[in-house]
Amino acid sequence: MYDVTEIRRDFPILSREVNGKPLVYLDNGASAQKPQVVIDAITRAYAEEYANVHRGLHYLSNLATEKYESTRGIIARFLGVRDEDEIVMNTGTTMGINTVAYGWGMPNLQAGDEIILSVMEHHANIVPWHFLRERQGVVIKWVDVDSTGYLDPEAVIAAMGPKTKLVAVTHLSNVLGTVVDVKTICQAARERGIVTLVDGSQAAVHMPVNVEEIGCDFYPITGHKLYGPSGSGAIYMRKERMAEMQPFVGGGDMIREVHKDEVTWNDAPMMFEAGTPGIVQQIGLGVALDYMMGIGMENIADHEKKLRDYARTRLDGLNWLQVQGTTPDKAAIFSFTLDGAAHAHDISTILDKKGVAVRAGQHCTGPLMDHLGLTATCRASFGMYNTEEEVDKLVDALELAHDLFA
């Protein structure tokens, strides 16, 4: 039985007020709030258990190492990965994709090789490939979405050609809420010998994920969206791809031996984890993922689908509101504009006066905004702790904004 009231009690920030109103936090697509168990784990790690990992032989170092490394196994279980050595821990999706761009892309791609992206990718899954375009002559091919925000997997497959070396697509759009059929795309790419990266920043928050069933080569996730600390995250890397990669950040832990005229690398995944890591952040991430799995990812997904359906019904009743992304099975993410000249920033400011927190801007999706012919949208993104009552408060605040700007 999913008890959202009980879940909300686990998140202390949800009991506060903003501008004299109860906080309605609908900015989960940017970053989620933290449950008390994560906050406690972070406090305990700093107050009672802190030491550097891997290199010490004393009690605290061994304890910190054990807790830090246990997160690798938790992430593997969370993503349906059998071998935890295929999990590289880092600061989040941006670092994960850059690791692929520099560690795999630079050694393996040449001028004229093609990378396929969808038009709704986050900048984190665009800018690193532009580095390769500028510096190595790699060609970026774009696949559009239709008027509902749907990305046809057959369109992605049709774009694959003899020069295609990588397909990098989001699993779930952070603006449109579109869920992409990445399994079909990855299967077709694998049959053609094409490497695949699936951006899991949003999808891993809202639904069960099994990367081995998806069949991708890389799958990055971000901890702060998963109810964990900022500065935490990981990327799944298929071992076959790891063998084709070179480290691009040098320092401690990623080496085996260092001499004046020679350096030998550590084995993966350590080869891609240079320097002192975010020890406490990763410990907190492990607790956050355990918390989510304790509730059940299927249960979270079902709760958010009900919220999506309720929010869709309420928002559809506002004939002056334009929602971007209308695929039937989308996630509980709603990006919208108001008829007239009201800018997204102005709308967001009015909503904030009512205690409703939403995001306003381009949401790090410049190509998608160009495709939609928009400069910005407001975005309400829901999480495991949101309620139908909060949807009603969002609608009330939007009606106030409309009255003010009409």
Walkthrough of the structure:
The protein has 406 residues and is of the alpha/beta class. The chain has two domains: 4-30 and 296-405, Alpha-Beta Complex (Aspartate Aminotransferase, domain 1), CATH 3.90.1150.10; 40-293, Type I PLP-dependent aspartate aminotransferase-like (Major domain) (Aspartate Aminotransferase, domain 2), CATH 3.40.640. 41% of the residues lie in helices and 17% in strands. The chain has 15 helices and 17 strands. The protein has helices at residues 4-9, 36-47, 59-79, 93-108, 127-136, 153-159, 182-191, 203-206, 211-214, 239-242, 279-295, 297-316, 344-353, 366-372, 388-405, and strands at 17-18, 21-22, 24-25, 87-90, 114-118, 139-143, 164-170, 195-199, 218-222, 233-237, 255-259, 262-265, 321-324, 333-338, 356-357, 359-361, 377-381. The strands form six sheets. It has a four-stranded parallel β-sheet, sandwiched between helices. A four-stranded antiparallel β-sheet has the order 13-14-17-16, covered by helices on one side. A three-stranded antiparallel β-sheet has the order 4-10-9, with helices on both faces. The longest helix is centred in the N-terminal third of the chain and has 21 residues, at 59-79. The radius of gyration is 22 Å and the shape is globular. The model has no long low-confidence stretch (mean pLDDT 97).
Query: Kindly state the mean pLDDT as a whole number?
Result: 97
- This entry's quaternary arrangement is single chain
Main beta-sheet strand count, sense and barrel state: 4 strands, parallel
CATH architecture of the largest domain: 3-Layer(aba) Sandwich
Name of the CATH homologous superfamily of the largest domain? Type I PLP-dependent aspartate aminotransferase-like (Major domain)
- CATH secondary-structure class of the largest domain: Alpha Beta
Distance between the termini: 43 Å
Number of strands: 17
> Approximately what portion of the residues adopt beta-strand conformation?
15-25%
| Coarse structural class | alpha/beta
CATH topology of the largest domain: Aspartate Aminotransferase, domain 2
Radius of gyration over C-alpha positions, nearest whole angstrom: 22 Å
Low-confidence stretches: none
CA-based shape: globular
Organism: Marivita geojedonensis
Domain Aminotransferase class V: 24-394
Keywords: Pyridoxal phosphate, Transferase
Protein name: Cysteine desulfurase
